[in-house]
Design brief:
The complex is a heterodimer. Chain A is 0% helix and 50% strand. Chain A is an all-beta fold. In chain A, the strands form three sheets. In chain A, strands 2, 5, 6, 10, 11 and 12 form a six-stranded mixed β-sheet that branches. In chain A, a hairpin with a 7-residue loop joins strand 10 and strand 11. The radius of gyration of chain A is 14 Å and the shape is globular. Chain A starts with a strand and ends with a strand. In chain B, 0% of the residues lie in helices and 55% in strands. In chain B, strand 5 and strand 6 form a beta hairpin. Chain B has no helices and eleven strands. Classes of the chains: A mainly beta, B mainly beta. Chains A and B meet through strand 5, strand 6, strand 10 and strand 11 of A and strand 5, strand 9 and strand 10 of B.
Chain lengths: 113, 114
């Protein structure tokens, strides 16, 4: 079945450092890809998405590009802030209309001042 | 206004008890979901309802029974609770149409079975 693999955490960075969280997927067909973020004590919220190959999703300084050839959707940010500390989830949904999201295991990011 | 709200936020109970978690969304969405997040943060879908009709039922024990009285509510009832049911349960909702894959999550209910 479909699956998502993302890098194990936790990740600890200093403010203004560069961030990359790796995500690869296995799916039949052409899934849509997502990054969700979970701030402490809150539910998940959509950070960005891409629906087809070579699409780039971006939001709040974060970017991820849908790479079909490497089946990847790595999350990047050039300069992280303390407020970016959260758990980040990579996810996919198939295009079969089931609306089911398959999540990776999450990567906890801590940004220190 | 909270878009997707779950109650209670924390639930501590004994093995063998029956408990319910409630979820309400005020976004006007047609589809609602329940997810389970285990101690390792792994998040997996349990159920999905579209306009009160069950459309996704993953391999979940029969002790778990979702109930949707209307499209704004999706409650989760759990019978004969077991230690392995301890987890954080998230409710979510999504609209129809092009944005159907964007899901909006509640803050979660942390269930501890002793």
């Amino acid at each position: 079945g479909d699956s998502v693999t993302q890098m194990e955490g936790p990740v600890t960075l200093s403010e203004e450092a560069c961030l990359t969280i790796n995500c690869t997927y296995t799916a039949t067909g052409y899934p849509s890809l997502f990054w969700y973020v979970q701030y402490p004590g809150e539910g998940l919220q959509l950070l960005l998405k891409a629906t087809k190959a070579d699409d780039k999703g971006s939001n709040k300084g974060f970017e991820a590009t849908y790479r079909k050839e490497t089946t990847s959707f790595h999350l990047e940010k050039g300069s992280v802030q303390v407020s970016d500390s959260a758990v980040y989830f990579c996810a996919l949904s198939d295009q079969g209309g089931s609306e089911k999201l398959v999540f990776g295991k999450g990567t906890k990011l801590t940004v220190n001042p | 206004d909270t878009a997707v709200s779950q109650t209670p936020k924390y639930l501590v109970t004994q093995m063998g008890n029956d408990k319910s978690i409630k979820c309400e969304q005020n976004l006007g969405h047609d589809t609602m979901y329940w997810y389970k997040q285990d101690s390792k943060k792994f998040l997996k879908i349990m159920f999905s309802y579209n306009n009160k009709e069950l459309i996704i039922n993953e391999t979940v024990p029969n002790r778990f029974s979702p109930k949707s009285p209307d499209k704004a509510h999706l409650n989760l009832h759990i019978n004969s609770l077991e230690l392995g049911d301890s987890a954080v349960y998230f409710c979510a909702s999504s609209p129809v149409g092009l944005a159907k894959n964007i899901q909006y999550f509640g803050a979660g209910t942390r269930l501890s079975v002793l």
